[in-house]
């Protein structure tokens, strides 16, 4: 079947978006593919349409539960019933059922950790898959080496099994990250499609403060007088909670979001935001990946992100409807030191390496370090992975190198933040591309008129009506 016929048949669309057809054609030619397509450009259609044409199950490795659930729900809205998510939301009984009938599903979503479970791998080895997808593939480079080493094990499994083509999807990635993806996943001479990383409808603001305390006042006044929906990014869970409380007291429909909440709570908050029941999310960088909300008008960073990749991913959540949106980066002296502290806070140290080895020499379990509170669960997971791969001295050198790379990434972000030239051109250049055209209200350095982008929030919108439950029930019963 021709792709132009398959597209309207399965999805009702008449034309492909840039990159979709090229990626699908490569998959159908059984090529491995790395596709960099901006969020909102229909990345998921690349594997969904391929799955329908191939008429074989598609395995999608997804990094976050919320992202996985969103993708499952999207497919169900299109009428697809043969879709399943293998994740921690399933009960033991549900998981057994899903595994038993796994070959009958058309789309199988799972996490890197679930994929590596022996019973899951055994079942998958019995199924003739049509395609394997690694969604948000930049996580391999950004998380795999120092946060979720199971991402690195995915490639080991790929190299041990007879597999179909692999599609690695992401919104943004540098040349180094693309190489990490290809090497880690053991891709075979992959076809690469790189879309322009610039989002001209996102206008780049920047505000510098002499005093950190002035930031809080600026944020409160700005959010009170301008329209959302928006995301305010903070560097810690504690600060997210504090800002959320201040905004709620100011009458803003707001919720905090961070990894300290349970999966179901995070899913509920995200859905409230998507449904328009919340105007602002006050979050750590745990929020936003894969969120399907096209009308986000503002992204504010209270402090400097740890690297340019994170910044581009986070501001890219705004304006997916093509309408004007604004990303405002706030800065005060010392923000870069905070960023360096945060990004290396969970890295194991040379002392942890020696302690791990000491316990092994005493024939004790290194997991005692975790039980004793000597390091975090994330740090132990990373330490345990690398000490099973390399020598003590190699691991020490690797950890030092990881810390240096993180420091350099913060310095790159600071350089772009403090440039006197066009901020947009600098960001695009970081990803190895060249800015083709500057939009109106381009950035702080080129000139930006906030009042042309930020709509003033109407007084009526600020009021949160407290309707008695009897009145709400009466409205529901009467169909109002």
TrEMBL record:
Domain of life of the organism encoding this protein: Bacteria
- Which part of the chain is the Helicase C-terminal domain? 218-375
Pfam families per record? DEAD, Helicase_C, RecQ_Zn_bind
GO MF annotations, alphabetized: DNA helicase activity; hydrolase activity
Return the protein name. ATP-dependent DNA helicase RecQ
Q: Does the keyword Transmembrane apply?
A: no
Keyword annotations for this protein? ATP-binding, DNA-binding, Helicase, Hydrolase, Nucleotide-binding
The chain positions of domain Helicase ATP-binding read 24-191
InterPro entries attached here? DEAD/DEAH_box_helicase_dom, DNA/RNA_helicase_DEAH_CS, DNA_helicase_ATP-dep_RecQ, Helicase_ATP-bd, Helicase_C-like, P-loop_NTPase, RecQ_Zn-bd
Organism placement in taxonomy = Bacteria, Bacillati, Bacillota, Bacilli, Bacillales
Q: Which NCBIfam families match?
A: recQ_fam
């Amino acid at each position: 079947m021709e792709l132009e016929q398959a597209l309207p048949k399965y999805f009702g669309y008449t034309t492909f978006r840039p990159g979709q057809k090229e990626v699908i054609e490569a998959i159908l030619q059984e090529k491995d593919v790395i596709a960099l397509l901006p969020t909102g450009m229909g990345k998921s259609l690349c594997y969904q349409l391929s799955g329908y044409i191939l008429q074989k199950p598609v395995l999608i490795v997804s990094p976050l539960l919320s992202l996985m659930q969103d993708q499952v729900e999207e497919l169900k809205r299109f009428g697809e019933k043969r879709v399943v998510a293998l994740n921690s939301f399933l009960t033991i009984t549900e998981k057994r059922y899903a595994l038993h009938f796994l070959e009958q599903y058309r789309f199988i979503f799972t996490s890197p950790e679930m994929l590596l479970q022996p019973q899951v791998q055994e079942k998958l080895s019995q199924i003739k898959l049509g395609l394997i997808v690694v969604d948000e593939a930049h996580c391999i480079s950004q998380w795999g080496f120092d946060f979720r080493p199971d991402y690195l094990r995915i490639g080991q499994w790929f190299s041990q099994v007879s597999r179909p083509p692999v599609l690695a999807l992401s919104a943004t990635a540098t040349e180094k990250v693309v190489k990490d993806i290809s090497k880690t996943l053991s891709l075979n001479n992959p076809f690469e499609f790189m879309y322009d990383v610039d989002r001209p409808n996102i206008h780049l603001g920047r505000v510098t403060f002499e005093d950190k305390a002035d930031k809080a006042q600026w944020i409160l006044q700005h959010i009170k007088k301008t329209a959302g929906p928006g995301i305010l990014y903070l560097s810690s869970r504690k600060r997210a909670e504090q800002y959320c409380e201040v905004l709620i007291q100011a009458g803003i429909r707001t919720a905090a979001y961070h990894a300290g909440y349970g999966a179901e709570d995070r899913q509920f908050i995200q859905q409230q935001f998507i449904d328009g029941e919340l105007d602002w999310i006050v979050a750590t960088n745990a929020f936003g990946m894969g969120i399907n909300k096209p009308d986000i008008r503002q992204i504010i960073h209270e402090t400097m992100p740890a690297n340019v990749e994170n910044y581009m991913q986070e501001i890219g959540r705004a304006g997916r409807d093509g309408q004007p949106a604004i990303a405002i980066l706030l800065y005060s002296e010392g923000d870069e030191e905070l960023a360096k502290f945060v990004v290396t806070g969970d890295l194991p140290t040379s002392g942890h390496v020696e302690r791990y080895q000491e316990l092994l020499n005493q024939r004790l379990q290194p997991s005692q370090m975790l039980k004793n509170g000597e390091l975090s669960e994330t740090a132990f997971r990373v330490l345990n992975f690398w000490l099973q791969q390399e020598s003590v001295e190699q691991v020490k050198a690797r950890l030092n190198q990881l810390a240096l790379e993180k420091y350099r990434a913060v310095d790159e972000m600071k350089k772009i933040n403090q440039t006197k030239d066009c901020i947009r051109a600098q960001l695009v250049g970081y990803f190895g591309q060249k800015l083709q055209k500057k939009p109106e209200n381009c950035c702080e350095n080129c000139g930006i008129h906030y009042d042309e982008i930020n709509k003033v929030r109407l007084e009526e919108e600020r009021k949160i009506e407290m309707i008695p439950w009897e009145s709400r029930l009466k409205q529901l019963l009467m169909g109002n």
